[in-house]
Amino acid sequence: MKLKIEKSVAKGKIEAPPSKSMAHRALICGALSGSSYISNIAYSKDITATLECLEKMGAAVEKGSDYVKIGGLDPFSVPENVNVFCNESGSTLRFLIPLCMLSGNNVTLSGSKRLFERPLSVYEKICDEQNIVFEKRDESVSVCGVLKNGNYSVAGNISSQFITGLLLVLPMLPSDSTLTVEGKFESESYVDLTLEVMREFGVNVEKKGNVFYINGGQKYNSVNYTVEGDCSNAAFLDAFNYLGGCVEVGGIKNGTLQGDRVYADMYNGLKNGEKDFDLSDCPDLGPVMFAMASYFGGAKFTGTSRLRIKESDRAACMAKELSKFGVKVDVYEDSVVINESVVSEPKELLCGHNDHRIVMALALLCSVKGGVIEGTEAVSKSFPDFFEKISFLGVKVNEV
């Protein structure tokens, strides 16, 4: 779908959408409980994927307009040869693989080709060490075997989703385990979110530095849980305040542990002339920060290497699209430089690269300069009503 966005000034009050990160974790913990009630749910493609996978694995699921009743999943009895579809959701795939390695039955996790271009090496290594079958194909992976308790080690510069996947499962094993993060612990805040949600469901893990001490034999309790607002998507709404608008964004929890809460500090830094930023703990902010840096006269971003393995190669794709606004971008192995440029109205069609965060980042600049974006349906991955929300704020959006 193509959308034309005209020069507009956003004004009004709006609620941030529910946190996708928190919802994934809460739904999995809820599924492993007897019966839990998860409220403030938004049915994005990623959340729908996680729900459908959990249901196929054996969870009882009842969906309401903005809530889910879920529970009863026994991961030690997942049916033989079940195939769960993760769509394009990296969180769904990486969180559920360890859960699929408890029954001893063959389980296949499938999804888009791009999803399986993203690394799964941590689990492949564990399976090799424990003689668990791990068969990876272009659009699926199958596992068969039983994960054992023990001492695990994961590199800190690879996706924190692997760490979360293991932490969700290891407490259910009969004996104790440890998990050590080697080297620099990037995206640590996402793991802190995991521990916070697990505690809400009665499962506790002790963290000392980069080592997690995990008591076995734990069970997830049935609870009522409300998903908090999402900082990573609030960043797109709040950005209008730095582009000449006046938007009040509600729904963000005071004292939230979400790493992407730093977006406001970064925006203020850009506005005040700061030129150096580290994205290693908040890589999802990459596209929006690149767009905002273009508007504010350039900046250098480090800790960007993992942007290559997201829904798209976010550094390269943003560089290509920002060039259409007249912005020169230099992409390096672990850094991105947005050069000082005059941002102008794009004369070419903008491409969303099937990446929700790229579409939303481009929409921000289009609200200042105008432009047409192709592939806007990608927002359904995390923020399905993004364009409805910004239209409510006064941004002029029309289908082409």
Q: Mean pLDDT across all residues, rounded? A: 96
State the major sheet: 4 strands, mixed
Specify Rg, calculated over alpha carbons.
21 Å
**Number of DSSP-assigned strands:** 22
Shape: globular
Individual helix count: 12
Intertermini distance: 8 Å
Beta percentage is 15-25%
Label the structural class. alpha/beta
Helix content: 25-40%
Biggest sheet, strands in spatial order? 20-21-1-22
Note poorly predicted spans: none
What can you see in these coordinates?
The chain is an alpha/beta fold and 400 residues long. The chain has twelve helices and 22 strands. It has helices at residues 20-31, 45-57, 90-96, 121-129, 160-169, 188-200, 231-238, 263-271, 286-295, 314-323, 356-369, 386-392, and strands spanning 2-5, 11-15, 36-39, 60-63, 67-71, 82-85, 107-110, 133-136, 140-144, 151-155, 177-182, 205-208, 211-214, 224-226, 246-250, 276-278, 299-302, 329-331, 335-338, 350-351, 371-374, 397-399. The strands form six sheets. A four-stranded mixed sheet has the order 20-21-1-22, with helices on one face. Helix 11 links the parallel strand 20 (350-351) and strand 21. Helix 1 (20-31) packs parallel to helix 3, helix 2 (45-57) runs parallel beside helix 3 (90-96) and helix 3 (90-96) packs across helix 5 (160-169).
Question: What's the layout of helices and strands?
Answer:
Layout: E1 2-5, E2 11-15, H1 20-31, E3 36-39, H2 45-57, E4 60-63, E5 67-71, E6 82-85, H3 90-96, E7 107-110, H4 121-129, E8 133-136, E9 140-144, E10 151-155, H5 160-169, E11 177-182, H6 188-200, E12 205-208, E13 211-214, E14 224-226, H7 231-238, E15 246-250, H8 263-271, E16 276-278, H9 286-295, E17 299-302, H10 314-323, E18 329-331, E19 335-338, E20 350-351, H11 356-369, E21 371-374, H12 386-392, E22 397-399
Parallel strand pairs: 2-15, 3-14, 6-7, 10-11, 16-17, 20-21
Antiparallel strand pairs: 1-21, 1-22, 3-5, 4-5, 7-9, 8-9, 11-13, 12-13, 17-19, 18-19
